[in-house]
Design goal:
Length: 341
Amino acid sequence: MSDAGPVVLGPNQPQRFYRGGARIAAFRGLARPELAPAAHVPEDWVGSATAIFGTAEDGMTRLPDGRLLRDAIDNDPEGYLGAGHVRQHGTSPALLVKLLDAGERLPVHCHPSDGFARRHLASAWGKTEAWIVVDAAPGSEVYVGFTETVSPGKLAGWVADQDPAMLAALNRMAVAPGDAILIPAGLPHAIGEGVFLVELQEPTDLSVLLEWESFPIDGRTDGHLGLGYDLALDCVDRSPWDAGQLAALRGVAGHSPVASVFPGAADPYFAAQRIRPSGGVVALDPGFAILVVLSGTGVLRSDAGSLDLSGGMTILMPYAAGQSEITGDCELIRCLPPGGV
């Protein structure tokens, strides 16, 4: 049987090719003087049963007792995930949650769709993702979707030549703390420097790198998922995205104690709820979830006992924890797999 209670998770920050990590340490309240601006640990994989592409276990979460979360779930899938989830998705949580600190602008990239991943990568999932902005300096922005139709030849030329025209061809979207944006699979995008966010995504590490100039990675060998760019670029959405389409990717901020974060188009992939008890009680049905405590203090009570909450905590909620409730003056994001609301 799984441990029935919530599990507090510490940092899980694999090395990546772009800079970041200091904001994650600050968010968690950890003294990490070694995280100079040049640090390359910009992602914290929270409650991860997913490995970095091309590795066996890198990126996977280890529980406090030393077990890989993946193995613990395999040993008791219904205890962690619930019988309904197991019938639908097997022993995968069907979700990967990250904290992401863009210590520099990320390169332009995109992720394959479920269909492309099944056809060419032997994966049941592609990588639709979504962002919840926790912190961003005034003037921060992200880059999402092309402004005009891009022909296959032009895109291939931009990638081969590492032409800065590719970045200039993307829509710029201003972002601020509290914003939520859905990024469908295939949509080319980049996150601007200084943006710190919670990311929900399908449980893969599948990325097609469209830009790598000035980054310590060679996209010609490491950027196309082993497919070669002639095939990999077929997963890119080359259509134009206008202001109305971009607006539809944004979630609508709600002020109720429990508010959905993302637009309805995210529902087949994952869900997130912003929880603000504001001195009241928020009751939660049983279900696998990752909780990210953004700020404040509170108490999480479940059938397995109680846990004091404070800003910067990340918590795995197994299905077996049962009915739970949150009280206090705090704000959380409850991250859920598809069908979890």
